[in-house]
């Protein structure tokens, strides 16, 4: 029974990854991604500096 469940999980992962490439992202999504990464970096920096 465990082998059958493992086979199903592997097939599900393969099917999820085999859907093809993602469509290109718009410039708005690029800008939002960059802003989020910068916000995340600044937040983590402030938290680490405050922890001292």
Automatic annotation (TrEMBL):
Keywords: Membrane, Transmembrane, Transmembrane helix. The chain crosses the membrane at residues 30-49. This is Small integral membrane protein 40.
């Amino acid at each position: 029974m465990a082998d059958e469940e493992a086979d199903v999980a592997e097939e599900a992962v393969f099917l999820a990854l085999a859907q093809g490439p993602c469509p290109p992202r718009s410039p708005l999504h690029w800008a939002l991604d960059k802003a989020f990464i910068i916000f995340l970096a600044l937040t983590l920096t402030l938290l680490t500096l405050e922890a001292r």
